[in-house]
Specification:
CATH topology: Metallo-beta-lactamase, Chain A
CATH superfamily: Ribonuclease Z/Hydroxyacylglutathione hydrolase-like
CATH class: Alpha Beta
Number of helices: 7
Bound molecules: zinc ion
């Protein structure tokens, strides 16, 4: 009997080791693919982007909220409003697969009607941006635990995904999606145990200000988002809002898996503090007038460092607190 148990344990250990070795090998392969695709694709300048007069960004899902009645989540969703056009950039986590989801509940409380949303942009196919595990399993995006009718919505997704009612378009290359608004196209990054991740960000050109870049998890890395924006446009970068994935210290979450998952590194490697400072310096070189970093994938230490570097130019990302640019 003891012998059988010993063999079973040995078998499990060998299988575990094999699985781990394969995941490391896949990560190294994906890293090569991602680096090659970054070098290979250099976009032409995008002509005729146009401008918007005013841009409003209302975080509907993020870690921090302005009141206890709103629900915070380690995911993100921002309502991007330009005139009467409304874009939902990512749709949060909905960890417990609730209906109505935290997103729908926050929307209701903040007076946002689902029927007013024209467009959904999914930054990347990770659970905290597509509405949870159920959505990931079904290779779709879900606003809530039960089906929501998105017949009136055009959705731009970064890889092959489907949706029961929305009109879906896969985006890989940069594309103007409305007057003054473009996706900068996807940038690939190898993520250990999660595969090659293609992530897109939005660029909104605000009249008299410049480009505001709206980012999901920031797996592309800040430097590459900025470089892509500079390659595409001869327009100064005014601001950056969203996640940059810098979980370096334990802070809000007890078991902060984001320190291991989603880093773009091997599981035994960590994001170092000097990398955060370098990213802040890189962003500062751009003379940004506004920066707002999401707490959903960065720790409080990182947010504090950004606050110190950018001072009055730093804004908190909080559910219920609208950020407006222009006019
Ligand atoms: Zn995220
Ligand atoms: Zn992610």
């Amino acid at each position: 009997m003891m012998k059988i148990i010993a063999y079973v344990i040995l078998g499990v250990l060998i299988l575990g080791l094999l699985g781990f070795t394969v995941s490391v090998r896949n990560f190294l392969r994906d890293t090569k693919i991602a680096e090659a695709s970054w070098k290979e694709f250099k976009p032409e300048k995008m002509e005729g982007l146009g401008t918007v007069k005013e841009l409003k960004i209302m975080p509907l899902i993020d870690y921090y909220t302005t009141s206890d009645t709103l629900t915070g989540e380690p995911g993100s969703s921002y309502l991007v409003s330009v005139g009467d056009q409304k874009i939902l950039f990512d749709i949060g986590y909905n960890m417990e697969n609730e209906h109505p989801s935290p997103l729908l509940r926050n929307m209701k409380q903040l007076g946002v009607d689902i029927n007013d949303i024209d467009t959904i942009v999914i930054s990347h196919n990770h659970v905290d941006h597509i509405g949870g595990m159920k959505a990931m399993k079904q290779n779709t995006f879900l606003l809530s635990g039960e089906e929501t009718d998105l017949n009136h919505v055009k959705a731009y997704v970064p890889e092959k995904m489907s949706h029961a009612t929305a009109e879906v378009e896969v985006i890989t290359k940069p594309k103007k999606i409305a007057e003054g608004i473009a996706t900068i196209g996807t940038v690939d990054r190898a993520i250990w145990a999660m595969g090659l991740t293609s992530e897109q960000a939005l660029a909104v050109n605000v009249e008299g200000k410049g480009l505001v870049l709206i980012v999901g998890c920031g797996h592309q890395k800040a430097a590459r988002i900025l470089e892509r924006a500079r390659d595409l446009f001869d327009i100064p970068i005014y601001g950056v809002i969203g996640g940059l994935h810098y979980p370096v210290e334990e802070s809000r979450m007890k078991f902060n898996m984001q320190k291991i998952l989603g880093t773009g590194k091997l599981p035994w490697q960590r994001i170092e503090k000097h990398e955060v400072m370098e990213a802040a310096a890189e962003l500062d070189k751009t003379n940004l007038s506004m920066i707002a970093i999401s707490a959903h994938d960065s720790c409080d230490w990182t947010l504090d460092k950004f606050r110190e570097v950018f001072r009055e130019r730093y804004l908190d990302v909080m559910v219920g607190k609208e950020i407006s640019v222009g006019r």
